[in-house]
Amino acid sequence: MRELTNELLxxxxxxxxxxxAFQACGKKLGLLHEKTLYFNSEEELSVLADYCMFYHFxxxxxxxxxxxxxxGNSLNPDTKQLLTVLQQAEYAFLAVERTTRHSGVIVRNxxxxxxxxxxxxxxxxxxxxxxxxxxxxxxxxxxxxTTGAALSVxxxxxxxxxxxxxxxxxxxxxxxxxxxxxxxxIKAGLQENIIQYTRQQKVA
Length: 204
Description:
Layout: H1 2-10, H2 21-28, E1 32-33, E2 36-37, H3 42-55, H4 63-71, H5 77-87, E3 90-99, E4 104-109, E5 114-119, H6 121-126, E6 132-139, E7 144-146, E8 151-152, H7 157-165, H8 175-191, H9 194-203
Antiparallel strand pairs: 1-2, 3-4, 3-6, 4-5, 6-7, 6-8
């Protein structure tokens, strides 16, 4: 499923990004300086691309919506099902509770207080209980997956608390408000260089 997701997000779907997506989103995330995008790592580029794909809306539609309208009817059943999952993507804070034997991690969704099975080969071998992840997630019948750009945000919890306090219930936010909320979370993390921290955790 991860391979199919990466193939879909990294394939034709990226062609449906609005022309100014990287500049507009880079500005929101604090990566654009004097009309130039600056990255400290490839991971920051991945985070920006993920944000552009899911949270850059033009006329109420993101690249996934535009791809679905243009190509949805020509997809095979498995890809069409995944496209529906992508259109229903959520943003979540996930607290790692324990790893499992089968490429998974048991996490607690902070917004719903529900335990979830997060399927992720890398995290299953490196995640430490107590780590708090912020990520766009894809929901399947028996498990969830991140979109591949999860951030470890323990070091910015005070900033997150301030962001959450001044925000509405995430489930009730409009698309544009949710996009702004996610941008604030990511920007706070990038300012604290949590990409480097996340990479070190995975290596460890």
